[in-house]
Design brief:
By secondary structure, this protein is α/β, with parallel strands linked by helices. The chain contains ten helices and 19 strands. It is globular.
Amino acid sequence: MAVIKIDTTQYDAQLSEKEQRIAAQFQRFGVDKLEVFSSEPINYRQRAEFRVWHDGDDLFHIMFDQQTKDKIRVDSFDPAAPLVGEVMQVMIDNLKSCEILRRKLFQIDYLSTLSGEILVSLLYHKPLDEHWLSEINALKEKLSSKYKIDFIGRARKQKEMLGDDYVTERLNVNGQELIYQQVENSFTQPNAKVNIKMLEWAQDLCKPLKNDLLELYCGNGNFSIALAGSFNKVLATEISKSSVHSAQYNIAQNKVANLDIIRMSSEEFTQAMNGERSFSRLEGIDLNSYNCQTILVDPPRAGMDTLTCDLVANYENIIYISCNPETLERDLDHLTRTHEVKRFAIFDQFPYTHHIESGVFLQKKNT
């Protein structure tokens, strides 16, 4: 059996290396001390994607070595959340003996929650017909006695759903249960327990802040919903249609009454704020009614463009969540002309990799 094992004795050392690297990189911004938030050393990923390899009667998950591109057989995967790890083996056991379900299957994706739901997506190089639907329905019925499980089948220009195309996560954040719909193929934080630490850190930042909050790149409302209780009103923007749909669902599920989410890119919102363009999507939203003294940004790896940085610099308080230290450093060069770094945290979303999630809190300099 091929097992992807993690040497957990190395965890503290790898996190320390990240801390030292980030501290050195951002020292010139006056960062004296990092707040460091660790991960579970194993079983931390709620999401996992694997290619599938066929070898005669055998069938197994594989990954590819990033350097050599060699394929690695994966029968057991330590980074996966316990539910993902268990269902991985169950799927292989059931697929092996079913020619209709295994034929032309090339990838399996798993999306799970801390609250015990799992969605399995099966990707094929063949059309999915009524025989496939019959077999996957039988498998769902068989497994549903033990798991809260749904299936999606994907082929070229085809998507078949057996149940929902999302899971519903329930996170305990500072003693409050927050509900988040997480849709297949949409971005969600893969390390749910570290995500909780990020939300609690952001809530701690926002306790003394007043007035209203603006958030750009809000995704499914991960931060907006957790922070809404700290502000009079919250306005958030997101360009992805599926993420906005999930955010609206999450607002309703969490009974948040002071949060509006609009589907706009950060560039479009900048144009609207500057009076350069009008948008029908802003109908019913009076931007002048907001007294936003705090802005939260959680941009993609590319960071923010110059115009968005200019917009962000107008706010008294800036909370910047980053998945890329290089673009964060570039954007801080811009933002620290007007603001100073007050707090800097790192969150180990991706243990045993080079990647690190950062959170920076900046306040406008006294002039």
